[in-house]
């Protein structure tokens, strides 16, 4: 199930994911708490940005956090150790689907499906790890929901690079709108999906900085080298696009993005 | 300030606006109530879809509802008479800006600015009608927020027709994202804008029917004749686009749209 991680593994990327988790924690995790003693699988924990939320919002759970990248796991361990030193996490360096025979009460998957060539298959396999009645929670973005002022074809061109590179790598950064059918196709029942919308304007400076700049624009910036190397944009086009995108984070600018959060039951 | 009303004045359009108001009433009007005795101006009441909400959610207000179309006003009167026979509304057949000398505690404007060539000027003039400390509430959509599954270039082409025809008529159907800067430029203080997101999938059949079909697709359909007459699409292209858009309202389909609601103070 391994695919290229389109955003790359760099300190800037680690910082981006941490900023994102801080600013968005309530928005994304709101409504998700697990009872003490529940056995929970975090499938694809990355650098631990969401792991910190899971252990602090659901104290006393028996959490297994899995990732294919040893570097990310090391980062995740130190992040959790710093933010929640009392928490115990069973860290596993493994493929998501390499837990054959284990069973969980709940599965949590955040910003993972967008990178997979066959998300339905992944969801169906994760379902096998659930005890009957257990739930899966899936959170994904959808870059098609990114609308901003001022509008700019140059800015849209760099956003489209992110979408195109993700698609070339076999993923789908427009996956949020598909969560409901994906969960249904994978065999889950009681499927409920909700939009979780981020909107940033000058009256919300913490979101302008934490989301527009340090999450969204930073995410677009993370594919710059790949976009240039692939010849998708020239250096000048890239710079102009980023410059225009930054106007959405300046006086008079606005930015809107929707995440989708879905829950299904085995 | 008169402009062509891009959606046209037909029974189907009247029905669309009523369905829209019913399904969306809580989403759009939530948080908006005016104290009994307040003098409120509804600028551009159209067929009264929002007027019914204003008089039922804020009983006892002194409401003046204005529209440039005599036909729409007649429709609005009978709608309010049927839905809220006890309500008294001071109906005015006039241009929005033809109330010189009058003063209000609050102004309410819904789905009007998108049709205007100079929304900042309109907002600035409406500000003159407010008593100091009075508020304006503005609600607008943004067709750029329309994302759906399955994706389809044919479907997007018919949605784009709506955007293009609105732009040709001097309006802007991507105006929602601009509400914050527009209100600021028009001189309002304490400006707060919130997204109000509609998301419809098979688990929400009332929204699939009331919003995806009877609001959004119906709105796109309302410009069919104009789009064909303008040569923007052939009949076959139009039919294919609508067919694809309808898939978003069928099994396995989803639809997402964001309205923006802004409040400012004089």
Automatic annotation (TrEMBL), chains A, B:
Swiss-Prot/TrEMBL GO biological process terms: methylation
SUPFAM superfamilies: S-adenosyl-L-methionine-dependent methyltransferases
Methyltransferase type domain location: 41-136
InterPro entries reported for this sequence: Methyltransf_12, SAM-dependent_MTases_sf
Domain of life according to the entry: Bacteria
Gene Ontology MF terms in the entry: methyltransferase activity
Keywords: Methyltransferase, Transferase
Protein name: SAM-dependent methyltransferase
Organism: Kribbella solani
């Amino acid at each position: 199930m391994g695919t290229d991680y389109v955003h790359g593994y760099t300190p800037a990327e680690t910082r981006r994911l941490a900023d994102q988790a801080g600013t968005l924690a309530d928005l994304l995790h709101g409504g998700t708490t697990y009872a003490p003693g529940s056995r929970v699988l975090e499938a694809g924990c990355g650098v631990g940005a969401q792991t910190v939320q899971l252990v602090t919002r659901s104290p006393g759970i028996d959490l297994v956090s899995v990732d294919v990248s040893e570097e990310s796991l090391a980062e995740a361990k130190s992040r959790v150790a710093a933010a929640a030193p009392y928490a115990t996490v069973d860290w596993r360096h493994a493929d998501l689907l390499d837990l054959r025979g284990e069973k969980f009460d709940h599965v949590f998957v955040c910003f993972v499906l967008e990178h997979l060539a066959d998300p339905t298959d992944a969801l169906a396999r994760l379902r096998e790890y659930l005890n009957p009645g257990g739930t899966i929670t899936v959170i994904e973005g959808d870059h098609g929901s990114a609308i901003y002022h001022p509008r700019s074809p140059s800015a849209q061109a760099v956003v489209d690079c992110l979408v195109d590179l993700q698609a070339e790598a076999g993923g789908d950064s427009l996956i949020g709108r598909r969560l409901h059918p994906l969960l249904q196709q994978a065999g889950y029942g009681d499927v409920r999906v909700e939009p979780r919308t981020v909107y940033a304007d000058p009256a919300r400076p913490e979101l302008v900085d934490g989301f527009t700049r340090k999450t969204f624009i930073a995410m677009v910036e993370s594919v710059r080298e790949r976009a240039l190397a692939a010849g998708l944009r020239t250096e000048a086009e890239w710079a102009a696009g980023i410059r225009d995108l930054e106007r959405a984070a300046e006086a008079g600018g606005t930015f809107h993005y929707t995440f989708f959060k879905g829950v299904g039951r085995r």
